[in-house]
């Protein structure tokens, strides 16, 4: 159900993980930081499924002679998101943060200075959107204050993550079939 959840419903995903679990189990095209992406890539983004690896990629680092793509420290987080080489990716993230509903899955948002930086830059220009954090427990008051620094305005509580993936998939398919039935009644 996790693989179906990741692979079936999203045109693109941002990941903060440096591991290769998503790309090894899906058909997403991996895009790393510090790559100069051409305009044609973004013009045709809907034709492919893209995985933006915001904090780098472990496999790439094994073969690369630089370490600018791997992001572990606070300085590296901020340097990456503000670096001119990442302008295209940064603009994409900023646009999404301002205009789209965002679902954070598997990320506690305890120490992500780059995401806080993005929210601080766009918070006065936000559309009426949801920034949802999936959690298994209610946040404490201190955690709530911290989550607001990321623009989180909705907490989605789940008892069981595996059950969430299954229920999400079932609900999505059910709604999709209703929509299809309305569009093509005969």
Question: How far is it from the N-terminal to the C-terminal residue, by CA?
Answer: 32 Å
Number of strands: 6
Q: What fraction, in percent, of the residue positions are helical?
A: 40-55%
**Overall pLDDT level:** 83
- Strand arrangement, major sheet: 1-3-2
Q: Which term fits the overall shape? A: globular
Major sheet, described briefly? 3 strands, parallel
Helix-strand sequence: HEHEHEHHHEHEHEH
Helix/strand/pairing category: alpha/beta
β-sheet strand percentage: 5-15%
Radius of gyration: 18 Å
In DSSP terms (H or I, runs of 4 or more residues), the helix count works out at 9
Poorly predicted tracts of residues: none
Describe this structure in words.
- With 186 residues, the protein is α/β, with parallel strands linked by helices.
- Helix content is 46%, strand content 13%.
- It contains nine helices and six strands, in the order H-E-H-E-H-E-H-H-H-E-H-E-H-E-H.
- The strands form two sheets. It has a three-stranded parallel sheet with strand order 1-3-2, with no helix packed on it. Strands 4-5-6 form a three-stranded parallel sheet, with no helix packed on it.
- Helix 5 (74-82) crosses helix 7 (113-122) and helix 6 packs across helix 7 (113-122).
- It is globular, with a radius of gyration of 18 Å.
- 19% of the residues are buried.
- The model has no long low-confidence stretch (mean pLDDT 83).
At a glance:
The chain has 9 helices and 6 strands, in the order αβαβαβαααβαβαβα.
Topology readout:
Blueprint: H1 2-8, E1 12-15, H2 21-25, E2 29-32, H3 39-43, E3 50-53, H4 58-63, H5 74-82, H6 87-99, E4 102-104, H7 113-122, E5 131-135, H8 141-148, E6 154-157, H9 161-183
Parallel strand pairs: 1-3, 2-3, 4-5, 5-6
Helix pairs in contact: 5-7, 6-7
């Amino acid at each position: 159900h996790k693989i179906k959840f990741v692979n079936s419903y999203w045109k693109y995903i941002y990941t903060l993980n440096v591991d290769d679990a998503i790309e090894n189990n899906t058909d997403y095209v991996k895009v790393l930081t510090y790559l100069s992406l051409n305009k044609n890539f973004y013009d045709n983004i809907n034709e492919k499924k893209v995985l933006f690896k915001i904090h780098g990629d472990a496999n790439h680092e094994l073969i690369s002679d630089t370490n600018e793509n791997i992001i572990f420290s606070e300085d590296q987080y901020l340097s990456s998101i503000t670096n001119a080489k990442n302008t295209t990716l940064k603009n994409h993230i900023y646009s999404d943060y301002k205009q789209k509903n965002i679902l954070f899955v598997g990320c506690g948002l305890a120490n992500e200075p780059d995401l806080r930086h993005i929210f601080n830059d766009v918070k006065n220009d936000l559309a009426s959107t949801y920034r949802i954090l999936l959690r298994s427990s209610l946040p404490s008051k201190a955690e709530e204050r911290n989550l607001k620094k990321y623009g989180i305005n909705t907490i989605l509580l789940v008892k069981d993550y595996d059950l969430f993936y299954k229920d999400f998939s079932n609900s999505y398919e059910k709604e999709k079939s209703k929509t299809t039935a309305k569009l093509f009644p005969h």
